[in-house]
Amino acid sequence: MINITNNSKAFTLAEVLITLGIIGVVAAMTIPTLIANYQKKVTVTKLQKTLSVMSNGYRLMMAEEGVENIKNLKVFKCNKSDDNYKECLDANFGRVFKFAKSYYGTFSDASSFYPVYNIKLLNGNENSLLGVSIFGDYIFWLSDGVLVSPVLASDVNVDVPLSGFIDVNGASSPNQVGHDIFYYNINDEGVFTPYGAGGGWDDTAKNLDYCGDDTSAWSAGYACAGRIFDEGWKINY
Hints:
Structural class: alpha+beta
């Protein structure tokens, strides 16, 4: 008769509980970081895509209208004092961007669909003046939900680089500069670039365009799109 003896030992309940506890601690430490890194990658992807879509749209308008400078586009002939101002902008922008919807109204009216009074700077301070800048005129949403504050006729008469805002999450949180709200530049050829690219975000005085949360500047984070671009399309802050 052959006797088969099983010498294997089962885990005790205490050992199982200790192992599960260790796994839980490790998960609690790593999962938030993994989620944060994933969200940063999604944000960067949206930012890149939006800048590309906007550049292509403006340059398509230029090609269709046969102009070499964006300031000569028909969209910049839309007169804010005319009753059909919004319709004029819709017709020109909608022709190339196929946007989901647009808005033209007062800053206070915009609070019905966007937290205009609670927009935050990179340092966490709320700044309603930024809401005025974004919603003080005409905006539109791309089909993927990105909110665009475009360059308008009132901007092209100023002898400075043309610029505007985008919110890659639309009205969804966090509605914060440097996290989902970014500032862009557009040159005469219709090319969009991240505002602050080329080192403009690294303000040694930690003021104005500085991209870091260790500043109390009223415009903290405006140039964070430039930092993301300069650092290889990565959010390192």
